[in-house]
Structures are given as structure tokens and as C-alpha cells.
Specification:
Blueprint: H1 3-20, H2 31-39, E1 53-57, E2 62-65, H3 66-84, H4 91-112, H5 126-147, E3 154-155, H6 169-186, H7 188-202, H8 212-230, H9 235-240, E4 242-246, H10 254-263, H11 280-283, E5 287-293
Helix pairs in contact: 1-2, 1-3, 3-4, 4-5, 6-8, 7-8, 8-10
Length: 296
């Protein structure tokens, strides 16, 4: 069991719990809780444009973000599984750190670009802006370091044909559904903000609200390209122990990852993986999704 992974996961759980849950039991502002909140990793999860909120006390504006709570609970479950298995079952934790990585990266981009796009955040509070950037940079750095600390598997070969073992159709379906949901929860809001302010920069006298389709499409492309180019897999593929490689087994590059993401936008393309050669985004980009193997 990797001590860095264990301690960092525990720290993230403590900080997020105090930030999102325990402060509801403190009526007055508490300096300690304020400090904890300022350093906690914030997943910034919304369902399309809005967070999923449960109001505990509407009069006092006390509410709970259900998605944040589920994220914290998932972290706790992932850490328990990691400890019980003595580090063998790490996929849940790895997936969660991957999601923190993309959330922190997008948040850093949003706050840093506020100088160009003033509507994204209030640039009058420069100290808040600097603190937000630093917090997200710190957790972006921590999460990518932890991701590379997880055990790395080797590509699984078929004993009879000596070829790479491809991901099954059932696994591909899980990848599509889970990754699409995560792209909506973690990327949609950020891409919509960027589009709104980009339109404002080009057409300053008109307010244009991008459609769900445009924001969702950009979120889907950015999400897939981001993960497949940087860590050669996606959160859903982490859960199934698979990764994306070029034909022959070499690591996928940015060009291929971006091309795969664009091809996925073709109507009816999701059904193309039912054929023997895999989906169009595999065939046309000369890539494949294969199984990984790690010795116990």
C-alpha cells in the first residue's frame, strides 16, 4: 500500500468533509473551518448548469450539494477498499483523483482567464482570485502526482494469438455512459462559461447564451481529449482496467486523442463499436482500447 496515496486520500476526505458537511453544524463563522474550506479540493460539480441542492434551512440559506456529498462518500468507500485490499484495489481512488485533476485544471483556467473575460469572476477582489488560482494549482499538481503513484499495469496479451486483449462491448458501453455523465457534471459548466465570455468578447453588445448542445459537445470533446492525451485513459476506463493505445501498443498521442473525440460526434457513431473492428473512433484514428494486467 502506497503511503502517499493513503495520506493524500485521507487529507482530501477530511478537508472536503469539513468544508461541505461539518460546517452546517456551526452556526457562526469559524476561522478554523474557513481555513479548511479555503484549502479543500473543490470538485465544482453541477448537473448541466445547476448544482443538485437539498435545502436544509431555506430561511438561513443552508443547503447541501448532493453531488459533493456523493463525491465525498465515494472517496471514503475508495479509501476503505484500498486499505482492506492492502493497496490492490485502487481503481476507485484513481478515478476520483483523475476527476479532481480535471476539475482543478478547469478552475485554474477559468480564474486565470478572468483578466481577459471579466464576466467569469470578480476581478475586483484580487486576493480571492490569486488564492483560488493557487488552491487549484496545488490540487491539480497533487492529483497528477498521485495518479502517477498508482501501480502501472502491463498490456494484457492473448495467450493463443499473442495479440492485445481488447475491451469488451459491455465495457465500452459502460465507458460511454459513465464518461458522458462525468463530462456533464465536471465540464459542462466550465465550457458554458468560456463560450458565453468568448461570445461577449467577439460581440460585446449582444448577450448570447450557448445552447445545451453546443456547451455539451465542447465539454464532451474536451473531457475525452484531456484524459486520453494526458493519462491515456478516462475515469470510466480506470474502473474497468483499460486504456487507449495506438495500433501496435504504443501510447496514444494528442493528435489521435483529439481525432477520436471529434469522430465520436458523428451521428450514430456510438453504435459502431458493435462491429468486430471496434468503433469508428478506434478504426479511423488507428487506436484501440485494451485491457491492462497487474500482478498481485
Amino acid at each position: 500500500m502506497n503511503r502517499k496515496i493513503y495520506l493524500t486520500s485521507l487529507l482530501a476526505i477530511i478537508l472536503m468533509s469539513f468544508s461541505q458537511v461539518l460546517n452546517f453544524f456551526v452556526k457562526d463563522y469559524n476561522v478554523i473551518l474557513g481555513i479548511i474550506h479555503s484549502f479543500a479540493p473543490i470538485p465544482n460539480m453541477t448537473f448541466f448548469r445547476d448544482p443538485v441542492i437539498i435545502y436544509i434551512d431555506k430561511a438561513a440559506y443552508v443547503s447541501l450539494n448532493v453531488l459533493d456529498l456523493l463525491f465525498i462518500c465515494s472517496f471514503i468507500i475508495g479509501l476503505i477498499l484500498y486499505i482492506i485490499s492492502k493497496g490492490r484495489y485502487f481503481r476507485v481512488l484513481k478515478m476520483l483523483f483523475a476527476l479532481i485533476f480535471i476539475s482543478s485544471s478547469f478552475s485554474t483556467l477559468i480564474f486565470a482567464s478572468s483578466v481577459i473575460f471579466p464576466k467569469i469572476s470578480d476581478t475586483s477582489n484580487i486576493f480571492y482570485l490569486i488564492h483560488a488560482i493557487l488552491r487549484n494549482v496545488v490540487w491539480m499538481s497533487i492529483s497528477i502526482i498521485i495518479l502517477y503513484n498508482f501501480p502501472r499495469g502491463t498490456l494484457l496479451l492473448n495467450k493463443h494469438t499473442n495479440e492485445l486483449v481488447k475491451s469488451s462491448v459491455g465495457e465500452r458501453f459502460i465507458h460511454y455512459m459513465v464518461d458522458f455523465l462525468f463530462s456533464v457534471i465536471f465540464c459542462f459548466y466550465f465550457t458554458e462559461l468560456l463560450l458565453v465570455n468568448l461570445f461577449d468578447l467577439i460581440l460585446p453588445h449582444f448577450y448570447i447564451n450557448p445552447s445545451y448542445l453546443l456547451s455539451g459537445t465542447l465539454a464532451w470533446v474536451v473531457y475525452l481529449t484531456f484524459f486520453e492525451a494526458l493519462i491515456k485513459t478516462t475515469p470510466a476506463k480506470i474502473l474497468t482496467g483499460t486504456k487507449v493505445v495506438m495500433i501496435g501498443g504504443k501510447d496514444i498521442n494528442f493528435k489521435a486523442a483529439f481525432l477520436r473525440s471529434l469522430i465520436r460526434l458523428i451521428p450514430l457513431e456510438p453504435f459502431s463499436f458493435l462491429q468486430d473492428c471496434g468503433g469508428w473512433h478506434d478504426e479511423w484514428s488507428k487506436t484501440q482500447v485494451v485491457k491492462e494486467f497487474r500482478k498481485k
